[in-house]
Amino acid sequence: MHGSRFVSFLLPFAFVVVLAGRLPAQGGEDFGVLVMAHGGSDAWNRAVLEAVAPLREDQPLEVAFGMADPRTLQEAVRRLEDRGVRRIAVVRLFVSGSSFLERTEKILGLRPGAPPAPAHGAEHGGHGGHADGGEASHSMALWRIETVSRFVLSEQGLADAPEMGAILAQRALELSGDPEVEDVLILAHGPGDDEENERWVQSLRQRTECLPHYAPFRRIEVLTLREDWPEKRVAAEERIRAFVERARAEGGRALVIPFRVYGFGPYAEVLEGKDYEADRVGLLPHPLVTKWIADRIRELREAEYRQPL
């Protein structure tokens, strides 16, 4: 295994993350952070909460799980406002910077298009769960939250973050035994639109450019499953299985690394019966994700905040 090559590389990051979380309270005490994340199982949600834990010490911080769910966003905003926060930096922990961006702006009242909040108590319907833990409801209801705060939103996705390449390299090295006969597959969710999917692939290919500096892998590829679009998923599954089969047919093996916030998603089912190696770990847990969130907070702290319409 080649994971030891990362020891000297990763040692500084715990220190960097602590420093990043301890930012001076500039601009008064009305500043707080809302981290948005897709969410899922208890383990999925717990990984996000652990990633943001070091950043809670010096600023109010709440997490809203779901695909821009107005219920969890409302609950998180209320908790921040109960602590005196009136300027909220929204850090969007998604692979793509465009994921749910316009929808979130509508929910926060920064863009027209969302109806008023439902009658008191109606927003708590659905599948349950809490904004700061538990199973995500993934509600696609759309309504505008009630708030007295101003907001600024992060727009960078994890696929655009150079430091994510270091995580991919570490995952690959931890799986690697003989890189000269190993084919690395970076596997991601992917959107429905073909042009947007190509942008995903190109961004992720940039994240893989560092891998050859650590080990001479035989082949490195990025593919998306197009998970939520059945007519496109069929062809995507064929490409994914073909990549893995070719690695074995050429006398090597495939290393499959998910570019997901957490976990392996549906990839085990897609690759059932195939011969490959995977640790089934996403980007979390990793200190570089915490650092990425801290960097977004640093950028947004003094940004221009927008008043709801």
Summarize this structure briefly.
The chain is of the alpha/beta class. The protein has helices at residues 7-21, 42-52, 70-82, 101-108, 164-175, 194-207, 211-214, 230-249, 267-270, 287-301; strands spanning 31-37, 61-65, 87-93, 150-153, 182-188, 219-224, 253-258, 276-277.
Q: Cα distance, first to last residue?
A: 55 Å
Do you know the CATH topology of the largest domain?
A: Rossmann fold
Rounded Rg: 20 Å
| CATH class category label of the largest domain | Alpha Beta
**Unreliable parts:** 6-27, 124-137
CATH architecture of the largest domain: 3-Layer(aba) Sandwich
Strands, total number: 8
What order do the strands of the largest sheet run in, or round the barrel if closed? 2-1-3-4
Beta content comes to: 5-15%
Average pLDDT score: 89
Helix content percent band: 25-40%
Compressed to H and E, one letter per element, the order equals HEHEHEHEHEHHEHEHEH
Summed up, the domain count is 2
Shape: elongated
Biggest beta sheet summary: 4 strands, parallel
Structural class: alpha/beta
Count of helical stretches: 10
